[in-house]
Write a structure and sequence with these properties.
Order of helices and strands: HEEHHHHHHHHHHHH
Structural class: mainly alpha
Oligomer: single chain
Helix content: over 70%
Distance between the termini: 37 Å
CATH topology: MetI-like fold
Strand content: under 5%
Number of domains: 1
Shape: globular
Number of helices: 13
Largest sheet: 2 strands, antiparallel
CATH class: Mainly Alpha
Strand order of the largest sheet: 1-2
CATH superfamily: MetI-like
Length: 305
């Protein structure tokens, strides 16, 4: 009994710093924002807490629901692309020779060593009209023109064809590209951790029994690595949905997401109650999706039993 009490006391002592940090710097500000979502802006800097639902009703207007829907499909597409690219990458790292694994994992985590703002501005330099992508395409265009001239054919400009820079910045493509670039490591790392623990004998048994590589991947590998897939999807989709820096810098005015609308309410419009309501509406939707997933997972586990 004394040992149990001692272990319990040690547990509370060790958990106290982390609990204080979580409660004071996360839960307390979150509670304050939740209270503000039921307030009214009565002046430039004054807010009255009247426990009104007007902010939530306003957040359900079509103009804001359209932005939410756009944010959802952009986040879904970015998550799917991250999964499609990260799955073979995680497999390659997992099956790489032992001396290469630390280097490959370091290459995946290397972007974390650079500030997100700097990386985003680097993407602007790559995607802009006179950026590296268009510069490379123009170089190939000029070389093709030179080859045609050398073999005696008409130049491309003489037949009405000329190089036009691709509009790959300040649109939805740039936002999706930026989100995939930023959040790719969050998909690779949980997939790698799950694949690394995978019993390789299952793959060998499947191949020995006559199943092809695609059948083994579909029927053996994917079900066994499903926890890593689900974890990666959650770690990528939720930050994508609330992202505001990447859409602001890469999307411009044509590809704004709900995070940008929330940011403007807190900064430009100085309407903290409405911004708080938008934030928690997004949070409620996220919690609802996680709850549905939990219920479906529980039902699937019950059916398997």
């Amino acid at each position: 009994m004394e040992s149990w009490k001692t272990n319990r006391a040690v547990f509370w002592v060790l958990s106290l710093p982390g609990s204080f940090w979580l409660g004071f710097f996360f839960l307390t500000p979150l509670a304050l924002i939740w209270i503000l979502s039921f307030g009214e802006k009565t002046g430039i800097i004054t807010i009255d807490i009247t426990w009104t639902l007007e902010n939530y009703i306003r957040a359900l207007e079509p103009v804001y629901l359209e932005v939410v829907w756009k944010s959802i499909w952009i986040s879904v597409l970015a998550t799917v692309l991250c999964l499609a690219l990260a799955y073979p990458m995680a497999f390659a790292i997992s099956f790489a020779p032992g001396r290469w694994k630390p280097l490959l994992l370091m290459a995946v985590m290397l972007p974390f060593w650079i500030n997100l703002l700097i990386r985003t501005y680097a993407l602007i330099a790559v995607l802009r009209t006179r950026g590296y992508v268009n510069f490379t395409l123009e170089w190939f265009w000029e070389k093709a023109d030179a080859v045609l001239t050398f073999i005696g054919l008409e130049q491309l400009e003489l037949i009405g064809a000329r190089f036009e820079p691709l509009p790959i910045l300040y649109n939805n493509f740039a936002v999706i590209f930026g989100l995939v670039y930023v959040f790719m490591p969050f998909m690779v790392l949980p997939l790698y951790a799950n694949i690394e623990k995978l019993d390789k004998s299952f793959l060998e048994a499947s191949l020995d029994l006559g199943a092809g590589h695609w059948r083994t991947l579909r029927s053996v590998v994917v079900p066994l690595t499903m926890p890593g897939i689900v974890s990666g999807i959650i770690l990528v989709f939720i930050p994508c949905l609330g992202s505001f820096l990447t859409p602001d810098l890469l999307g411009g005015t044509n590809a704004q997401m709900i995070g940008n609308v929330i940011e403007r309410q807190f900064k430009a419009a100085n309407d903290w109650p409405f911004g708080s309501a938008l934030s928690f509406l997004l949070m409620y939707a996220t919690f609802g999706a996680l709850a549905i997933r939990s219920v479906l997972s529980g039902r699937q586990s019950g059916m398997e039993i």
